[in-house]
Amino acid sequence: MRPRRYSVSALVTALAMAGIGVSAAAPVASGEVAGRTETVYSTSSPVTSVVASKVTLAVPLPPGSLPHPQACDTLSYLRWRAVDGPRSSADAERVLVAQPGVFEGAGAFDSVARNTVASAAESGRYIEFWALDRRSNCLEDHTGVAAALRTGSFDTAADYYFRGAEADGRRFSGYAEGAATAWLRDQGLAQTLRDEYDVLRIEFPDQAVRKRKVLCGGHSLGGFVTGYFAEWDFDADPATTDDAGYNQCSGYFALDTTIRAGLSLRGLQIPELPAPIAGSVEAVSLRLDTALPVLRLPAVINPETTNLLALAGLAARLSPGGVNDLVRRLPDNPNVTATLRTLLSQDAAMFVTGQPDVRDLNATNEAVLGAILDDNSQPLGFLQASVGFPVGGPIGPKSFPLPDSIALSPLVMGMFGDAPKVSPTVYHPDTLYRWADYDDTTELTAPYTSSTSEVTAIGELARSLCEPLLDFTEWYFPTRLSLDLQQTTAPSFAVHHIHLDGVDRNPILTFRSSGGIPVADSGSPQDEVIHLPGYNHIDVLTAAAHQNDGRPEVVSTRLAEFATGAFAGRPRTLPTG
């Protein structure tokens, strides 16, 4: 049995993550499961051979749970299936079930899910992809975004979230805090794993079917959650293994993460704590969780700013060439101001003084989205995608929060990505910054970037941020989950975390991006690792189906092969469905 490790800090958790609109179509009921609804949503995706829907299941929280909204007594996931394939999941060859990363919702998987299902269907194999959503997302309010997709006007969303306007018969009540989020202190690892187990049991009541049909995995933090799932015993009786996590899956997949229990980054690992010490550590963490049930920072990462990412995607989706639609409407408050300065300041002086003011930059909606998330601008590695490059005006090196000499050095272990950082240098109405897409190779500027290091279409990123019925970004990430994941021997779940060889019992397919989070390997002999040059942490979810080298996208293609057993190089063939 391999050694067990965990990371030492909650900060590491945060850094490890990580016209056509929403359809008003009537719900598609299964007709078999009480309390189950399914609603199809429309999309501007060029992948038209896949249909996407939101599935909601009535699964109440346990008796004795703290007061919570009725909507939180449900579990939801996004489902993607081939248009020409079977309507029932029971008839699909396989189903990939994904756990999201930190501050991430089910909508983040929209591109990779569509491309994977479409890739399998091209060879006559019909699989599905499900992306799970955490219960905490029941507190989110997507009314403004959904209404704007229908009206085609960004003002619909801006007026709803920023100016108190009504949309679809309701008004935005603000971001939940205090007593409204207290119940999230119980939404830790045990409840998260139970929720996944309940989804699988409801949709596939026969354990033998689950074992044959389901592939379990995740992105970023979701890989570590899956590692625990593989080692979990849901009835706490090691003699009965039908309920063991590894017996719910026929294989695992890791999207820029590792399938293993406990968080781990290369160079930040220590042996797991002995039980007596683990008890004291857990007691301290539970007190912290009670005081701060939602993981939020004063700026950059909190409910308001994660919603702003969806709005940035919405502006770029509705009017790619429109100028500063989001920026001109942003509220003027300390959180937004500090966030903009942190993400977009060219140097420390600009961050401290606010001059030039980042709100004065003249940029298209696509360029604003690119500046926020592109690997040549976004400072934090777990928020980076390779979506192209700014054009239309002069650019210069960006040294905030760290100069490239430090940010790209081994000292920081890749936590700031692998691309040099640049920033616009002219803040004048006569200079309009635009965005060159990932495949616009004539506009990609050496030495900062090249066609081989750009993989995601800016339009694809914008669409994924706003179109799915479940969010790309997560407003309310439970602090308890981040704390639990670091404690492999925590007393509160010791009776369930007992199958410590669960990860090794099934084959694993791992994707590792060159500019992603530097996680440790799983250590499993069943693991096949695929390296992705040019990809960043978000690219494994959003990369375009057709790449600049003329080949199909690697992650979705290999996931489809993994699910169908079509790749002859697998060290162990998955059982056929």
Helix content: 25-40%
The total beta strand count reads 17
Unreliable stretches (pLDDT < 50, length at least 5) are 1-31, 567-573
On the 0 to 100 scale, the average pLDDT is 90
Radius of gyration: 22 Å
Structural class label: alpha/beta
Question: What fraction of residues sit in β-strands?
Answer: 5-15%
Distance between the termini: 30 Å
Count, helices:
17
Describe the structure.
The chain is of the alpha/beta class and 577 residues long. The protein is built from 17 helices and 17 strands. It has helices at 10-15, 110-122, 143-151, 154-162, 189-203, 207-213, 221-231, 275-291, 303-318, 334-344, 348-353, 365-373, 404-407, 458-466, 479-485, 539-542, 554-564; strands at residues 5-6, 36-41, 50-58, 74-82, 94-99, 127-133, 166-167, 170-171, 214-219, 251-255, 270-271, 389-391, 395-397, 422-424, 434-436, 508-515, 527-536. The strands form five sheets. Strands 2-3-4-6-5-9-10-16-17 form a nine-stranded mixed sheet, with helices on both faces. Helix 3 packs antiparallel against helix 4 and helix 9 crosses helix 12.
Spell out the blueprint of helices and strands.
Layout: E1 5-6, H1 10-15, E2 36-41, E3 50-58, E4 74-82, E5 94-99, H2 110-122, E6 127-133, H3 143-151, H4 154-162, E7 166-167, E8 170-171, H5 189-203, H6 207-213, E9 214-219, H7 221-231, E10 251-255, E11 270-271, H8 275-291, H9 303-318, H10 334-344, H11 348-353, H12 365-373, E12 389-391, E13 395-397, H13 404-407, E14 422-424, E15 434-436, H14 458-466, H15 479-485, E16 508-515, E17 527-536, H16 539-542, H17 554-564
